Description:
Elements: E1 3-6, E2 9-12, H1 15-25, H2 31-49, E3 55-61, E4 66-72, E5 76-82, H3 86-95, E6 100-101, E7 104-108, E8 115-120, E9 130-134, E10 137-138, H4 142-151, E11 161-163, E12 166-167, H5 169-178, E13 184-186, E14 188-189, E15 192-193, E16 199-200, H6 206-211
Helix pairs in contact: 1-2, 2-3
Amino acid sequence: METHTSALVHVLTHPLVRRDLTLLRARGTGSEAFRGAIRRIARLLATHALADLRTADVTVDTPLEPSPGVELAEGVVLVPVLRAGLGLVDGFLDAVPDARVLHLGLVRDEATLKPTCYLSKLASLRPDERVYVLDPMLATGGSAVAALDRTREIGLSRPPTYVCVVAAPEGIAALHRAHPDVPILTASVDRGIDANGYIRPGLGDAGDRLFGG
């Protein structure tokens, strides 16, 4: 699985990701097809994002004889930023079904573009868990920084990973000004954001397209 890497920004360039990203961008793609494409992209992003999880050796009995194997040796926590981040959860759970899912609700003021938090389920987060913040769009970076601020309040032992589908250079820069040690995994770095804070060419409002408005 190929990635193009620049410092802490990893762009997954797998042909299946590029195909489904094209589907996400298309104006005529309906909500059902949009959800399916974003889930498939999330599954491939998860495969890359989870590649360095620690494992522990185990032995299992096959139908013929004992066999060595591994199990995950650290807990995985998914933090979807509501509501659009929900679109990435199922793809990650396909890869790691026993991951915990802790929701974080942020809403952006359309005038100031500043996020405010209206819901946080992060109280049970433990410092030794591996955390993946999920949000399809990294635009201005305001919501991403707010989500990472809240996620890191307890003092995680390792930086969380920020996973998105489409990122703007402005958002990447804003995120790394506030959290310079956080890796970003995405399917595309687009041209930039417009005066309304939307990514160009982007794919529109991910939440609206996922859930039908």
